[in-house]
Amino acid sequence: LLNGTAPVTLEPGQVVCGEQTEEVSRCVEVIYTVSSIVEANDTSSKGCEDELELVFSILPPFTLTPSSEPSSPPTANPTASPTASPTASPTASPTASPTASPTASPTTSPSAVPSAEPSNLACEVAVKVTCETDDGISCDDISTPNSTCAFGVPLDGLQFTYIPGNTCEKSRNQQYGVDPSCEDIAPVGDTPVVLECSGSNGDDMVVLVTDIGSGQSLFTVQPPPPGTSLPPSINCTILSNATSPPQELQWNVIDTSGDAELDLKEAYGALQLESCSGLGVEDKVCVEQLVLETLLRNVGADTMNVTLVESRINNDPPSDQLDQVVPNPLEPGDNATVVEVVYFDFCETGSFSYVIRADANPPDGEMCEDEDGYNITIAPACSVDLTNLTCSDLSAPADDPRNCSEIPPIEIPQCECTECAREVIFRYTQAPCPLMPSGYGCEQQGDLAPTGTLTVNSSSTSSGGSETFFTTDVSLGADIVIVDTREVDECVPEDLDITIATATGIQVITNLDTNCGTGNGIDLTTEFGSLQFTGYTCDRNGENSTNCFSDVLLETCAENDGTIDLFIDLFELDVIGDTTDLLNGTAPLTLEPGQVV
Questions:
Q1: Which residues contact 13 (CB under 8 A, 6 or more apart)?
Q2: Going by C-beta distance under 8 Å and a sequence separation of 6 or more, which residues neighbour residue 70?
Q3: What is the torsion angle, in degrees rounded to the nearest 10, for the CA atoms of residue 312, residue 316, residue 317 and residue 319?
Q4: DSSP symbol at 333
Q5: Is the pLDDT of residue 69 over 60?
Q6: pLDDT at position 425, please?
Q7: In angstroms, rounded to a whole number, what is the distance separating the alpha carbons of residues 472 and 391?
């Protein structure tokens, strides 16, 4: 279903769809089992998969009386169920929570006590780091949240970040039906922006802005009365703060009812969803505020003067924190606290490292030092969801669509027209002549090939004698619609002589009497040598047509409903054991969060 374009990258919340056109029988009872499967990898290499199944049949209301020589039975019964169930459910939660508790001791032990102890008392300083959210939750207890914000209860808050350059065309979310839902007014470039939101109820929303570092801001959208819910939808306008007055860049309409699809890391134009909260349910938060608190303690027996406190986040340059040390100097047993606030995204694969070091001197003697640190590693598992598997009848009117289970069965099992048939339809099966044909003649030389040429004459002199009135190319499994090319839309002679010539053999069928205009026509699905009778048309212009087979459209969609990019390795559709590669040999397919294929 990826049509040779794998890998496809899906960002969180992104959906990708695939489709396949098949034909289904309305004359022979067949239980159609259709299954679709999707497999993906992610940056953690853990992988994920999902599978859907669709079963339907069209039951003919008639029972055919077998001819003196019944046609050969099908080679195998329809598959009762998919060939295999999914290998495993998607990973229910990230495979690893943040790394274990902070390092219990510094990576380098304090320098050894001098071999000859000086007259003064030794300087000893202890450094200990703890990490909590602004709500007091230990960083050890934070994990990647489930991405869905469709709580089923009203939402009371959303948080977004701004993605420079993300036009409406680059939106990746599951909200369909709001039209239009996004409009670009001016380029959404790398510029400071502000956000203004109004509700579908006409109220202006409260928008709080938090600087989260690296030039990014977190926009929190809340209803004006605290403790109430957001309106069913909000319209948020992004404005450039680099102009006076601010210039409108883009607006987005977002369903905030709590019932519509809404996932973390989905992009609504240049707004990426980072958190959501609903009345009476637990918040879903990607970007957490972390409070790193370092305790400096004089554990020696002498007064010490703290001379250096430096912290380092990841590979950033050291940051001087000495001005936070109060009191300084520290008397024996005294403490000083250093606090830093950082923001970390628990919905994306990444790591965070924090190291802090302190140096101190006593009134006399040698200096002392200590350091501590805190590390977080997040590797969210990918999550892929097959959002639907549908089958629709392509012959249904556009204004009255129907699914495959609603396809009507054939009402009359024989070829029966008031005047005559203007089209008779056969399917080429490549079958040999039967040993004892019943009611018609059949002779064959050699074995038939999958392709060839078919010519039709009338065996009745009153209908033109042996004059050829129809010829066409044939291929295995294809329908042959026979008409009288001498007089388009006129009756097809009922006594037919048919020749199928292929590269390896020839078959001649004689005296095939359709009897379509007599009220006692041939039965649908009856086989005549290599031809199976599958349909007919009575009226001119193709009206009042009957065909055992209908074209149907099978469609299935895979959505990245996680928070990280994933790479689809396998996306298949199986129809009664016939498997179609929806990736068309181009795996892997990358899906961003919220993207659908």
A1: 147, 172, 173, 174, 261, 263, 264, 265, 266, 267, 273, 559, 560, 561, 593, 594, 595
A2: none
A3: -40
A4: T
A5: no
A6: 96
A7: 32
